Amino acid sequence: MSSIYALFGRSVALLAIVLQGACAQLPEHVDRPVSVALPSPSGTALEALVQQRRRADAARFESGFLLLGGPPAAYGSRLALIEGAQKTLDLQYYAIHADASTGRLLRGIRAAAGRGVRVRILLDDLHSTGRDALVLGLAFVPNIEMRLFNPLAGARGSSFARIFNSIGDASRIQQRMHNKLFLADNVLGVTGGRNLGDAYFGNALKGNFIDLDILAAGPIVQDLSRSFDSYWNNERAYPVQSLVKREELKAIRERAEQADRELADESARALNAPPTSQTPAPAEGEPKPGAPPTAAQLARAWDEKPLDLRTARFVWAPAVMLADQPGKIPADKGPNQTKAPGLVVSQPNDRANPSRRAASLEASSDIAAGSDTVVEGLLQLIGQANSDLLIISPYFVPGPDMKQAFAAARGRGVRIRVLTNSLASNDAPVAHVGYSRHRQDLLKIGVELYELRSEQASVSNAFGSSGDGSVGASRSMLHSKVLVMDGRLLVVGSMNLDLRSQLQNTELALLVRSAELSRTASEQIERGMREGSWRIELNDGSLVWRAPEGSGLKDTTTEPDASLTLRLMLKLFGPLAPDQLL
After folding, report:
1. Which region, left, alpha or beta, applies to residue 497 given φ > 0 means left and ψ of -120 to 50 means alpha?
2. Which CATH superfamily is domain 359-577 in?
3. Which CATH fold would you assign to the domain 46-316?
4. Out of 103, 138, 228, 428, which residue is the most buried by the measure of CB atoms under 10 Å away?
5. Where are the alpha helices (DSSP H) in 398-438?
6. For residue 397, which of 362, 345, 442 has the smallest C-alpha distance?
7. Collapsing DSSP states into helix, strand and coil, what is residue 181?
8. What is the pLDDT of residues 526-550, one digit of tens each?
9. What is the pLDDT of residues 281-294, one digit of tens each?
């Protein structure tokens, strides 16, 4: 095996040397004007609303939280923030896709900029290619600034070409900004697992993600904004205009429109209908004549209505933020350049209301503060669990220290239940290989493992519906990142429990000390495990998948719902991929 890796490494190095002279380069001496979040949210309508809600609830704590488990709440919360913002909107995302769901959000953002709201959008650069590159056009709209984090050099026609161009800088390709934030007026914000796109809001035809966000209100949002600012003003954040010209975006748009016309004409021919060239152009947002129905048309039982923040039921509780520093992804160049790890841990945001709950959270944040990354901070917290750990990690590839933390917790009598993707529900099947290597070891130490059943119908009512059920053929894919500890500490964030999140990607998480929120999340997760997931057991040293409750399915001894071809491919090629790259 080592000889294979050595040969691959030498080949890549030789290719990088050959291409080095011809490869496109990132610009130098880029102007990055420093800007920060709204110093004080006072005087805005959103701030007044939060204060009114807090007084009405006679809350002891200053920050409030609302779990956003399904597409209507997740989408509606973002619409509400866009429409309610008066001064600032700050967005930080790993991926923003140019599709129907995102289209309305971005039109709202343009409208907000038009009424004087300052908009800053920070996007990881890996997926801003092809049609999705059209999102970058926002950078040329007045009052909107847009920066790309850790960009790859080269044209944006295809992801492969840009990765090939950057092959001599493998670390740049591997290390990604995975944080997710949507902040309005520095007083309300959404964080969690969702990117922006149809598949994250239940509107994709082929597959939708089951996800969970949390809406935060009050002082904790200022901590989230400080994290955003640290990335926005970092030297790895490049203004879009320094990387992409209007002409390139125009060419990408023309290619996308041509592809749409060809698809529509193909559908028209199949339906014996006139080609689109003989049909007037549709208005913005309308389906193209002759084109197949869009996912938005088929899967829209929710009405895209903004969440009513006046009636939203917040739970007021102490909380802290864990955030990787942008230095986890090192800056460019320099012979002595090394990573600059170090976890940013905000202080409990309710020091003015001391209580046993707040003091307990402060102790938890002190424990996490000794760590280098968000995932390592969570491992430190796992070391303090007394009775129960309930975990959702879509991509679950435990390294040695993670397995050691689980073993130590089991030794203390802590019950550990983990929900992750099955091979059939995993949108990155190769990541399943890293997890499958560790299944037997985890089961032997007493970790209870559940894998999501891929069919949407089995989970639509069990755990944070991936859609409304009208796209019957689409599969569900787990994407939530959640941890509940001892029934009183809830963690919602962008991180997976895998080596990629631990060692390479930057991540962010909210820790909320609330028995009520923990109970709500636990009930959803447990119902999803019971009714929508396969439970894995060891039987005489072999794996057995126990069918979901009430599903009518039979237990099985092979990866459920996955094709033989996929199982064979992963068995053959999976061992070649090291855990830290999955």
Report:
1. beta
2. Endonuclease Chain A (3.30.870.10)
3. Endonuclease; Chain A (3.30.870)
4. 228
5. 400-411, 429-436
6. 442
7. strand
8. 999 999 999 999 999 999 999 999 9
9. 433 333 343 344 45
